[in-house]
Amino acid sequence: MRKNGELKPTAPSWHTSKPDLDNLVKAVKDAITQIGVIWADDSQVNISWSEKIYADQKHQVGVRITIEKL
């Protein structure tokens, strides 16, 4: 990453160091569970898709969550 927040052209696409992806997903699901509006317990989640990539700090940093009732 450059000082201006942009990725170097040689930066890898996939972030393969800590934190572990499963720990990040667990933190998000636990936070949603604590809110108590979406679900009572994250055991109710049936489908989950996630990826951990390097991102340009100016445009892509964050989490996108889509929740649909089955």
Give an overview of the whole structure.
There is one protein chain. By secondary structure, the chain is mainly alpha-helical. The chain has one domain. The chain has one helix and no strands. The longest helix is centred in the middle third of the chain and has 15 residues. The radius of gyration is 15 Å and the shape is elongated. The mean pLDDT is 85.
Topology record:
Blueprint (H helix, E strand, L loop, with lengths): L20 H15 L35
Q: How would you summarize what this structure contains?
A:
With 70 residues, the chain is mainly α. The chain has 1 helix and no strands. The chain starts with 20 loop residues before the first helix and ends in a 35-residue tail after the last helix.
From the alpha-carbon coordinates, what is the Rg to the nearest angstrom? Answer: 15 Å
Helix content: 10-25%
**Count of discrete alpha- or pi-helical segments spanning 4 or more residues:** 1
Low-confidence stretches: none
What can be said about the biggest beta sheet?
none
Gross geometry: elongated
Q: Ends: how far apart?
A: 40 Å
Number of domains: 1
Would you tell me the overall average pLDDT?
A: 85
Give the topology string: H per helix, E per strand.
H
Percent strand: under 5%
Q: How many β strands by DSSP?
A: 0
Structural class estimated from helices and strands:
mainly alpha
